[in-house]
Amino acid sequence: MTDHLDSFFQHDADFAWEPTEPGVKRKIMAYGSDLMVVRVVFEAGAVGKAHRHPHRQASYVESGVFDVTIDGKTQRLAAGDTFFVPTNLVHGVTAVEAGQLVDSFTPMREEFL
């Protein structure tokens, strides 16, 4: 798989939003075979349902407030906070307030393409 970069720079307007669940949409920002960065926007009350995947995930709370559950443990995170999900742990989020996450995955999530 080749990297999705015609250059070193990407512009937000060049990427489309994709609805994923009620009140949730995502936009792939950049990716290569070993890394993917995705913006995810949540309306207040929207749920990113519990799931697992073989990818490691690091997420930054850009805005809003989220209840984040990882492996049965829940914490409330707000803008500026981060969370990390190791391989294959069940995790999900609920948007307490409308907000946005910036997710990074390694390796990339091929099923998102």
UniProtKB/TrEMBL annotation:
Residues in Cupin type-2 domain copies: 39-97
Classification via Gene3D superfamilies: Jelly Rolls (2.60.120.10)
Top-level taxon of the source organism: Bacteria
Entries under Pfam families matching the protein: Cupin_2
InterPro entries: Bacilysin_H2HPP_isomerase, Cupin_2, KdgF, RmlC-like_jellyroll, RmlC_Cupin_sf
Name by which UniProt lists this protein: Cupin
